[in-house]
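Module 6 notes. Inverse folding takes a fixed backbone as the condition and produces residue identities as the prediction. Think of it as a translation problem where the source language is geometry and the target language is the twenty amino acids. Below is one complete input and output pair. Work through it position by position during the lab.
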């Protein structure tokens, strides 16, 4: 059975950075193989993980549609063709595999791409003891996408007053949309001092969060982001790496 960690939050707060760190530290801790899923149509996790992506679920689906439309692939049903194309879009690494939703191309909407991603996940999830899903901003798509259970739902926020307020809103939205999860983790990212905002205590109580993780604003991480380098390049003594290691130990022990 897989242990699934889904990362969410508003735009630009560090979801992909946290997702990349979680993938790379799971692997460093011998918790593998990992399936890394980029469920943001604006694919970014590939760069953070240092891999090159040939195809997304969105483009796989479009290719399958074109092939079926041309009457090619005789003897293969449209659904089977889609499954072949999805299998082709899985990037296989040494310690992890990677799947990206991408943008839906051609006719159809995001709901369709979401459905295809969900079906693909249902088919392959059992191969992976660890699954990490990086989401686009907000929770709207998360509830539609995940039919499988989420063991830890991670909500990332910046430390500003308004940023913290989004944790309340995300939690309310998660309840409203009946996103089911085992445990809830609140991550406050880019802290400029070591003190967690007072408001967080109240938010933790109100949301019933099981874990709180504070991540400092870190020059090495910022520099890596600027040059688009892979997160695995961060040294083991980097503060974010150490804190994510501690967090993973807590949630998986
Ligand atoms: N703790 C940190 N210290 C320094 N820089 C950080 C930190 N966390 C994230 N960043 C930088 O902030 C920028 C945004 O981070 P990231 O792309 O992870 O956010 P996101 O929430 O995934 O954004 P989006 O909503 O666009 O998907 C990146 O350039 C990243 O390198
Ligand atoms: Mg992102």
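Target side of the pair, the amino acids:
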């Amino acid at each position: 059975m897989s242990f699934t960690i889904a990362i969410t939050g508003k735009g630009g707060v560090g979801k992909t950075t946290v997702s990349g760190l979680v993938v790379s530290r799971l692997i460093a801790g011998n918790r593998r193989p990992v399936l890394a899923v980029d469920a943001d149509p604006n694919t970014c996790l590939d760069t953070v993980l240092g891999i090159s992506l040939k195809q997304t679920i969105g483009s796989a689906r479009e290719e399958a549609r074109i092939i079926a439309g041309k009457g090619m692939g005789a003897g293969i049903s449209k659904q089977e063709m889609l499954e072949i194309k999805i299998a082709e879009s899985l990037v296989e690494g040494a310690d992890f595999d990677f799947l990206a939703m991408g943008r839906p191309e051609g006719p159809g909407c995001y709901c369709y791409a979401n459905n295809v991603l969900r079906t693909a996940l249902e088919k392959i999830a059992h191969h992976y003891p660890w699954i990490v899903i990086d989401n686009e901003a907000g929770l709207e798509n998360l509830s539609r996408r995940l039919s499988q259970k989420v063991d830890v739902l991670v909500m990332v926020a910046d430390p500003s007053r308004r940023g913290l307020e989004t944790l309340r809103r995300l939690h309310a939205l998660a309840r409203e949309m009946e996103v089911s999860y085992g445990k809830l983790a609140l991550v406050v990212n880019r802290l400029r001092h070591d003190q967690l905002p007072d408001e967080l205590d109240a938010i933790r109580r109100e949301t019933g969060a099981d874990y709180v993780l504070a991540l400092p604003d870190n020059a090495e991480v910022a520099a890596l982001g600027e040059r688009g380098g892979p997160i695995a390049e961060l040294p083991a003594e980097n503060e974010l790496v150490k804190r994510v290691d501690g967090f993973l130990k807590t949630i998986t022990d």
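Reference fact for the lab report: The chain is about 45% helix and 20% strand.
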